[in-house]
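Before relying on records like the one below, remember that each one covers exactly one chain. Contacts with other chains, cofactors or solvent are not represented anywhere in the record.
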Amino acid sequence: MKPDWIGWMATVAFTSSYFVRNPFAIRGIQAVAACLWLSYGVVIGATPVIIANLLVVSAALFTMWRDRNRTQVLDTNGYENLVDRAGPVAQRLHLNSKS
């Protein structure tokens, strides 16, 4: 069996991230896609693919961990922004409530 199917799954996973608006979900999808690309690189023995996707997985997981206490809100122009749940904007928006 050819390893091409792993590459195609990685392509579908990564492409699907362009249709997601939540930054946390985007990073999660990209981490999964990079793991698939990493697997593909291991199977075909391509060191550049392995290293590049180790970096992508690391960056995606790190930023997910870093932003775990942030939430998405719309600003006055309708753009989504991440804000700290403990920050002054979050307090005004009652994001610290346990509801």
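Residues 38 and 50 are 5 Å apart (CA to CA).
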